[in-house]
Design brief:
110 residues, two-stranded parallel sheet, elongated
């Protein structure tokens, strides 16, 4: 709703956080069956992060969404699967970590 007031604005006149949110909304609401969001919650106010998480949850029923972020907290709350890239020698291992995070009390397993 608060974004309706941005409609008459040119994107270059919006703040950096507003521009970022518009970019993400265009991706989520577009026709793609799959979306990659790289650090979608960076540079956004906490209240906007909460709204964006709700939108991502609503959109993931109709499209695949891959989130990549350094901060696991907002991502883990809305993800179905959580993986970490773990360095192993000169290679990287992709490891499912949701169960480990639940064991150590970082999240509640549902």
């Amino acid at each position: 709703p608060e974004m309706k007031k941005w409609l008459p604005e040119k994107s270059r006149d919006l703040s950096g956080g507003q521009q970022r949110l518009v970019e993400i909304l265009m991706l989520l609401l577009g026709p793609s069956a799959f979306v990659l969001l790289d650090e979608p919650f960076s540079q956004l106010a906490p209240v906007v992060v909460e709204r964006l998480k709700a939108l991502i949850v609503a959109c993931k029923e109709n499209k695949g969404i891959l989130l990549s972020d350094h901060q696991y907290e907002p991502v883990i709350e809305i993800s179905d699967h959580t993986y970490l890239l773990v360095p192993v020698g000169r290679s990287m291992l992709l490891k499912e970590v949701r169960k480990e995070l639940a064991i150590y009390g970082y999240i509640r397993e549902t």
